[in-house]
Amino acid sequence: MFRVSQLALAAAILLVGSEAMAWSTATISGTSGAGVTAQDYTWKDWGGGTWDKRHSVAYWDSASNAVKVARRDASSGFPAWSSWVTETVDSSLTGIDGISVALGKEDDAEFVAYVDDTTHSLKVARRVGGTAGNCGFLSQWSCETVVAADVVNSPSIAVRFDSVLDDYVVHVVYTFEPNSKETRLGYARKAGAAPWSTAVIKANAGFIRLASDAIALDGSAPFVAYDEDFVGVQVSQFLGPAVSNWVTTLVDANGGASASMDIKSNRREIAYTSGTASSIALKHAWWSALTGSWTVSTVDTALGDWDASLVIDDALNTHIGYRKSNAPWRAKQVSGVWSTAGTVTPFAAGLRPTVQVDTQLSPDKTILVHSNSFGVIQITSE
Predict the structure, then answer these.
(1) I want to staple 71 with a disulfide (CB 3.0 to 4.6 A). Which of 17, 56, 124, 327 is the partner?
(2) 238 domain residue, yes or no
(3) What is the spatial distance between Cα 85 and Cα 63, in angstroms, rounded to a whole number?
């Protein structure tokens, strides 16, 4: 579906002011001291009215020096969300430089990408079952070192089930610095049981910022949105078949901070922030299949932080999570018109916000994951 009406609306998008957000906010028990977070959501229709869904939050636990995952489930038999279950992925670390999580649509398989800030290595863990331990013998998690050194920034992971392989193809983007004067944007791919393949998307770059949800798949082709110092917000598109074959497009020379991307039904969209510390604006960019170009608009101003996260729901409405007035906010676009909504939660909430949408049952409902000043992970649900 092409958003033809947006061509007329792009020049004058209506912002409907701050609506009262009468949503619920709950915490994930035991997450005090949580650092960086990431989330993903999936649901599967098994036919005959039978379905199940999963919501997973990956995070760094500074109290136990471990990468962890908290998850909850629901199904057609028990449609209310279950209680959160927390599990250790990797406790062999002293810190991380970023984290990202992806859920497989075929069977809710969990994949977590993270950067060890001691060895500067990129690691990917996949939940495989098991009975004990983490990242080891009989572990619930199979953990691999994908790149052994020089990785310096947040990774972003996406997965797609391949029916021919009868397994997942895993895509990860990351940044690395082979020397102190050069940043490179890297890409790693693993198809089923095959070894990892790696390539450079962009070399000789300035400092690059990646969001945990920077990568998105258009069918089997990965795209990545990112900000580069002195260049702006860009999108790199995989052309293939070689893993090093990418093309890069400048979206906004005035963009900044981490860019979040989602793709659905020929819709490619990005959320990011720009400006100065005293005047941060939330921006949105969408790609037109008719013109083959990007259109940029400002969604909100006077933000309280640089983070933004975007997802497109099943009705092709756009949801952006961000922070303003010490709280999580949601901007939603329906038929080209934006509305913004914020809520006040205690203890300076809304830190490091990410957004997903619960698409089962209808209507679709926004889920904001964020932290408060004590590092407690909070879930604000529509």
Answers:
(1) 56
(2) no
(3) 18
In the chain, the amino acid numbered 224 is V
Q: What is the DSSP annotation of 35-48?
A: EEEEEEEEEEEEET
- Cα separation of 178 and 149, whole Å? 9
Extract the tokens encoding 224: 């990545």
Q: Is residue 380 part of a domain?
A: no
Q: Note whether residue 370 is domain-resident.
A: no
Q: How many CB atoms lie within 10 A of CB 166?
A: 9
Which residues span the domain enclosing 207?
Answer: 51-216
pTM value? Answer: 0.92
Per-residue pLDDT of 16-56, as tens digits, reads 444 445 688 899 998 988 989 999 999 999 999 999 999 99
3-state class of 305 per DSSP? coil
Say which DSSP state 151 is in.
B
User: What distance in Å separates the CA atoms of residue 159 and residue 167, rounded to the nearest whole number?
Assistant: 10
The pLDDT of 317-330, averaged and rounded, is: 93
Q: How far is CA 187 from the centre of its chain?
A: 16
DSSP calls for 95-118: -EEEEEEEE-TTT--EEEEEEETT
Buried b (16+ CB within 10 A) or exposed e, 330-362: bbbbeebebbbbbbebeeebbbbbbbbbbbbee
Q: Which residues pair with 183 in a beta bridge?
A: 205
Determine how many CB atoms are found less than 10 A away from the CB of residue 63. Answer: 11
Q: Tally the residues of the chain.
A: 382
Kindly state whether residue 312 falls inside one of the protein's structural domains: no
Q: How many helices (H) and strands (E) does the chain have?
A: 1, 30
Residues 6+ apart with CB under 8 A from 128: 139, 140, 141, 142
CA 358 to mean position of chain CA atoms: 15
Tens of pLDDT along 139-162? 899 999 999 999 998 899 999 999
Q: Provide the number of structural domains found in the chain.
A: 1
Percentages helix, strand, coil for the chain (3-state, rounded to 5) are 0, 60, 40
The C-alpha atoms of residue 48 and residue 298 are separated, in whole angstroms, by 43
